[in-house]
Amino acid sequence: xxxxxxxxxxxxxxxxxxxxxxxxxxxxxxxxxxxxxxxxxxxxxxxxxxxxxxxxxxxxxxxxxxxxxxxxxxxxxxxxxxxxxxxxxxxxxxxxxxxxxxxxxxxxxxxxxxxxxxxxxxxxxxxxxxxxxxxxxxxxxxxxxxxxxxxxxxxxxxxxxxxxxxxxxxxxxxxxxxxxxxxxxxxxxxxxxxxxxxxxxxxxxxxxxxxxxxxxxxxxxxxxxxxxxxxxxxxxxxxxxxxxxxxxxxxxxxxxxxxxxxxxxxxxxxxxxxxxxxxxxxxxxxxxxxxx
Length: 292
What we know:
Elements: E1 2-4, H1 17-30, E2 34-37, H2 49-63, E3 69-72, H3 78-87, E4 95-99, H4 108-121, E5 126-130, H5 132-135, H6 141-150, E6 154-159, H7 164-173, E7 179-182, H8 188-193, E8 198-201, H9 208-219, H10 223-240, H11 247-255, H12 272-291
Parallel strand pairs: 1-2, 1-8, 2-3, 3-4, 4-5, 5-6, 6-7, 7-8
Helix pairs in contact: 1-2, 1-9, 3-4, 4-6, 6-7, 9-10, 10-12, 11-12
């Protein structure tokens, strides 16, 4: 169970490093298996180069080798990404998560060549990131399989297409050691049950201990107990994404007094109706956890 760490902001719209430190400590204490840093949930497109570098260094220093760090390094200019991977100091980073190029809408051949170039630019393990709802193009199983077989350091995929048929095909056709991670909290149980390996979670920002427990139970083959936990989480997870990510998780974390409910434009906080629904779902979940 990996967590896609949010970027907290102050009322002056600066990065809130004190809140970030507290969030990372909660992950360390809560049984999270790895951290995904500077991904979609971190509002990375709104961060400056210096902010991204400082956030990365802050988290690596705080973690101090206790958890693996998966770093988001993605974009729609292959040449720029290759240069970044070759020149940035990535000490303390254990793997790269790189999103399918967005806006350009490359063909499957273009996607393949993009990742092949990235793989040649670094010795770090690379996880593909397929999220067609954001990128405008779906990386098909044929492309994933080709990359898995031809590029030794492409070791896994974060699959956020929401298409279970496609995810099952990837699980079935890739090498046995190729890692398939759910990119959607709501189908994590289904992906692991189908043979997937885990999740890059948004929900885990707020409930690392409980979501880690569900994933661990599945790894142990205790599916009934895991499904019981899944049912506890369903409503909160549904509300988290009702008005977009990371607006939902920022709302939930604010209700837990862990961050301020501040996002950077063009993102804004969720609407009042969803904010209230998140609070209600959170209170229900907390009561269920307390009663277990």
